[in-house]
Write a structure and sequence with these properties.
320 residues; alpha/beta; Rossmann fold; seven-stranded parallel β-sheet; five-stranded parallel β-sheet; 13 helices; 12 strands; 37% helix; binds (2R)-2,3-dihydroxypropanoic acid; D-isomer_DH_CS1
Length: 320
Amino acid sequence: MKKQVVLTRRLQDECMKELEKHFQLIVVSEDQVPKREDLLAHLQGKEALVCTVTEMIDQELIEACPDLRIISNYGVGFNNIDVSATNRRGILVTNTPDVLTDATADMTWALILAVARRVVEGDSLVRQGQWNGWSPTFMLGGDVTGKTLGIIGMGRIGQAVAKRALGFQMKVLYYSRTRLPSHLEKELNVVYCELDQLLRQADFVSIHTPYSSLTHHLIGEKQLMEMKPTAYLINTARGAVVDELALIKALKEKQIAGAGLDVFEHEPYVPQSLCDMDQVVLAPHLGSATRDSRIKMGEIVVQNLIAYFQGKKPPCLVNQ
Ligand code: DGY
């Protein structure tokens, strides 16, 4: 008999088919974030849960589901899950690394280029019929090629962003909890430095660190003040790594030139003041949103669950 797996919400068809081959699925919500009480009710007596970034699997929920044994997150970042609470209860937590690295790095570059070269601003001007023709001084943007990129967090995604910077002949500085081995620094052509040095020198500051209490508001008023007035902040990691109110102030006061944001502090809420600024490019958390990445994320979820039900260590275990 197939094992039961609770899914907080329906995934794309390919993933559902793959999951259905192996498990009996219980989908809590078709296309919305499920109501907490529904999730709780569906989890009673169940041992396996698949969730996404939009569901807060906190201590209260974990304690209210005594039979829960594995939480398989459909995503690489797992800050939506209280891992300490799962550890206390002996619950396994898995994620889906690697398969969304390139998609997220590509999205980072989409934001870098869009914000520096004013692509979205230009697009809306053209659509509104406000373009009066080419002019030597019209809509000048920031240069990308040959500039300095500062990468905060040099894990898989940070490294993939750095690789792409080679094609733009950029100088790449990075700040990370763990320094890369020197052969990798050489291969990627990246230079390690402290955060304040990176902020002072970079023309683009791109965030690729996981979110935790240690990285909460890592970029706040003080750090934004350290950036150049011509520099851009890019965030495809997690919204709360940046103090959003401080960022709005820095943008309004032209302490920095602009921002490309794929993530926000209180998603899906985006402050109106950010929406009103031309020097900001906003995306609705699309980092991993390519068809192939999402299919592969589903495959990894399946592999993690199969391993668990076979009594083996899931390949992408993040705790214990
Ligand atoms: C991730 O995988 O962390 C993406 O942000 C979606 O959750």
